User: Fold this.
Amino acid sequence: MTATRITSLLCALTLAACVDSAITGTLPPLDAATDTTSDPGPDTDTAPDTDTAPDTAPDSDSAPDSDSDSAPDSDSAPDSDSDSVTAPDSDSDSDSDTATDTATDTDTATDTATDTATDTATDTDTATDTDTDPDTDTDTATDTDTATCTSAADCADDSPCTVDSCVAGTCTHASVPGCCVAPLDCDDGNDCTSDSCLLITTFGICQHAPLVAPGCCSQLADCAAVACQEVVCQTSQCLYSATDNPECCTVDADCDNGSLCTQDACVEGTCSHVPTGDPSCCKTVAWLLEDFSAEDPLIYDDGSSSRWQRVEGFATSPPWALYFGDPDTSSYDTGQRTFGTAQLRTIDVPFGNAWPTLRFRVWADIEHAPGRDDLNVRLLVGNSAFEVWNKSKLTLEQYGVWNDVAVSLPLAVQGQEVRVQFNFDSIDAEDNAGQGVFIDDVELGNICP
Assistant:
């Protein structure tokens, strides 16, 4: 501890004047100067006043100062003692003023260097102990775990419509499907059912009877058709959703295809595009061209050697053609009835075509009598099939030669998926020694007249 701090401590204890010691850092004499009461006796302190600091504090006494020391008191630090001594100053500096020194010495220069760092601050360690480890001691803190049961008996809720269980210390109450104690328990949120609770004892079974009302159904036929909407009967309700059919419509304007060559209209919720028939609108477009040089068609047959197949050497567009018969015998005679179908790939027929047409070339050496050796061409449109040509269109002179065939198709094929089928059936096992049937150069398209 420094001398200054010792001085400050002693000053504080004795309440004596410590001006000089605060300045010089020396201890004051342990004499009557430490007496803080009024001292009526003469001051016998003969020690010369060694402070050289001039006293800048004005002396508030009104008596003239008759002391003989002419040196100004240079002690600029006013005395910090508050005594009001009235006794004459008898020290050797002949200061004989008898006036009561009423000026309270406000010397704040008392060693303000007194260690203000005295740790007066309460230890403000506010850091919360973040130790999250659970206490294993016997503390009295309330256990906040969620355990509520030790067995199912602890979980009984007195409801006949729940299965009460204790799972890992927690009660669970699983609902029993269809169980009820009142009609409100059976509300299924479905406006097409009448909900009720059929009581058995203290509980019952929910019942949901279908209602007969608009928008409600027991089968699809109960649901009204809505233009451009698909409907299903589900949970006793007619449920509608937008159709993805681009030809669905509610007004004629929905069907405008921008073509001057068709009359567009909405007919029973479906667009109709009827060609105007103006020859200037016709543009020949082929959607299918098949000369059988690339791939086999889809074949359906009876498994015999006489069937539809691609062959070389006899064609209008060499080298390939489609043939029904047995190439090894150049006939379709197998000793029994023989038949088969050749189906070409699927074609999408666009709208706005006034002259959808099927063209092909045919060569036939088969029985020409009706009811014997059936040869026909069918068109599969969607899931429907209809015949567009058969052998009856050939005259007797047309057998054994190549013939060009053109068949105008109904406008209903527009916007549909179309497949062409060639079919042959010997009907019986007799007179099948002919060479068979050849097909070549199949074309499906809008063919102008």
